[in-house]
């Protein structure tokens, strides 16, 4: 990967990776650190990276770093770590995306990861499998389970609204 | 053969019960138990323990369906319709399968569920951006890399300088103890080497009009296109070894003098430089020079080399020798901002 390709990757994917990581960590500083580490690692290995496949490499690195942060540093997503402005509005004032984002946080981390990679980045099951080190069939199962759970939450929200 | 004691008899007894002891070891163990009734009493119930098994339970994992990878080969029913709906939203169904699903949902009043699944598509919030992208960008080439490259070039040039020019110029000038020029444009080169010590080559430098053919050979043309003549003359100081014309030719060819076109060209910064002009006694004995002799000491004999290097690298190049140190002769070579120093014991 050339310097130009690397810099293009920064311009093209830094935001995507940041959003992906922030969705998991809910902490701006921690998410920035992961993005920083991710690009630093990619830069160090630039000689071995195909410039055309850098996006996948970046997400794989970011995902692994994310796992490290959560597991090794025992990062806890507690209220004190949440930088998001949680929607204080009643459900009736929330749009579908807001409800889905709230619902997303109720999913297990792996389901959340695969759905984010699928919806945000448009990766297919095979690519998600490569990033998360899962079999394609496992990815499919997690996505299906996650979607079912999200749908159940939507149904329950609708039930609240109808009352 | 095993050695049984009160600390290990239980372990051996278990082995015995499981049939892992041979006849000889079994006999040793049984003899031990015969002589140790308290131990024998402890192991009486062990055979029962071996036969104990946990009661089997009929627990079943009820979520096996959810673990299976969704497939759409079988028909749609109430148990798998949601998988079909998700598969449709995921774009995994063929046109025929989609039509089949639409018919099923209509027939079973599942249009709303179907629409919900189609809405479950997360959109990234594009207002959330990584604000420090500039800190991630890398510049082309590293300052360190450039420095290393410059250093490499300088090192190579320095090597060339020392390997080639050092030998060339270090040896030859030693023959010339001094070069002098008098007001009549006579240059004297004095020799320092043992063989020719005391000898001197006197050169007359003069410029003549091109049309005039009064000069003795060889003729040369200077940079300005003017014909110049070099008149060579050998003068001998006492005591002097014999200096013949062959030797003169030898000097000229091996160590060509700078272009002796005219006075100005000879002594410029592009050529051998001089810094000191003082009267000298060397010529006084000689009638021809006695009244006007002056001496030009060649100070920076590497000037042609450093200038050539400077022209080549487009960087200021200098070479200095210092003998201030009483024990060492210090030479300093500088190219651009990089300098090398060499200390040589006197």
UniProtKB/TrEMBL annotation, chain A:
Taxonomic source organism: Putridiphycobacter roseus
GO biological-process terms attached to the record: DNA-templated transcription initiation
Name of the protein in question: RNA polymerase sigma factor
Keyword Transcription: yes
Domain RNA polymerase sigma factor 70 region 4 type: 100-150
Domain RNA polymerase sigma-70 region intervals: 10-74
Alphabetized UniProt keyword annotations: DNA-binding, Sigma factor, Transcription, Transcription regulation
Gene Ontology MF terms: DNA binding; sigma factor activity
Entry's family note: Belongs to the sigma-70 factor family. ECF subfamily.
Superkingdom: Bacteria
Keyword DNA-binding annotated: yes
TrEMBL record, chain B:
Superkingdom classification of source: Bacteria
Keyword field contains Transmembrane helix: yes
Entry's transmembrane regions: 142-166
Keyword tags: Membrane, Transmembrane, Transmembrane helix
Name under which the protein is recorded: Uncharacterized protein
The species this protein was found in: Putridiphycobacter roseus
């Amino acid at each position: 990967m050339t310097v130009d390709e690397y810099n293009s990757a920064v311009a093209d994917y830094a935001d995507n990776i940041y959003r992906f990581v922030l969705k998991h960590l809910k902490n701006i500083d921690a998410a920035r650190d992961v993005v920083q580490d991710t690009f630093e690692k990619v830069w160090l290995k630039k000689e071995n990276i195909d410039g055309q496949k850098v996006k996948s490499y970046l997400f794989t690195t970011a995902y692994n770093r994310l796992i490290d942060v959560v597991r090794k540093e025992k990062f806890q997503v507690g209220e004190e770590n949440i930088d998001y402005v949680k929607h204080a509005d009643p459900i009736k004032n929330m749009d579908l995306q807001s409800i889905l984002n709230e619902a997303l946080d109720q999913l297990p981390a792996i389901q959340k990861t695969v759905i984010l990679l699928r919806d945000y980045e448009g990766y297919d099951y095979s690519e998600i499998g490569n990033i998360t080190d899962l079999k394609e069939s496992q990815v499919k199962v997690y996505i299906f389970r996650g979607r079912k759970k999200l749908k159940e939450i939507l149904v329950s929200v609708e039930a609240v609204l109808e009352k | 053969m095993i050695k049984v004691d009160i600390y290990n008899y239980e372990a051996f007894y278990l082995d015995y019960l499981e049939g892992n002891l041979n006849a000889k070891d079994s006999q040793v163990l049984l003899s031990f138990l015969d002589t140790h009734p308290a131990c024998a009493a402890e192991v009486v119930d062990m055979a029962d323990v071996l036969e104990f098994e946990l009661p089997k339970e009929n627990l079943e994992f009820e979520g096996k369906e959810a673990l299976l990878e969704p497939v759409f080969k079988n028909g749609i029913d109430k148990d798998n319709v949601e998988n079909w709906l998700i598969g449709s939203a995921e774009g995994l169904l063929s046109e025929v399968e989609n039509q089949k699903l639409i018919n099923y949902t209509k027939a079973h009043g599942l249009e709303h569920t179907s629409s919900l699944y189609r809405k479950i598509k997360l959109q990234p919030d594009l207002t959330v951006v990584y604000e420090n992208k500039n800190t991630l960008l890398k510049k082309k080439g590293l300052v360190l890399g450039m420095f290393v490259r410059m250093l490499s070039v300088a090192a190579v040039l320095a090597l060339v300088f020392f390997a080639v020019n050092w030998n060339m110029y270090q040896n030859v000038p030693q023959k010339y103890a001094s070069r002098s020029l008098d007001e009549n444009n006579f240059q004297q080169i004095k020799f320092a080497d043992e063989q020719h010590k005391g000898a001197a080559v006197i050169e007359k430098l003069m410029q003549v009009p091109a049309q005039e053919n009064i000069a003795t050979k060889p003729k040369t043309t200077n940079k300005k296109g003017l014909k110049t003549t070099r008149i060579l003359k050998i003068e001998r100081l006492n005591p002097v070894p014999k200096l013949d014309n062959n030797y003169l030719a030898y000097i000229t060819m091996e160590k060509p003098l700078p272009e002796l076109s005219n006075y100005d060209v000879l002594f410029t910064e592009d050529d051998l430089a001089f810094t000191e002009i003082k009267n000298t006694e060397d010529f006084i004995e000689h009638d021809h020079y006695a009244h006007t002799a002056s001496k030009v000491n060649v100070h920076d004999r590497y000037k042609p080399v450093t200038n050539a290097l400077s022209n080549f690298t487009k960087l200021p190049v200098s070479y200095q020798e210092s003998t201030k140190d009483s024990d060492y002769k210090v030479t300093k070579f500088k190219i651009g901002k990089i300098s090398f120093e060499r200390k040589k014991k006197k």
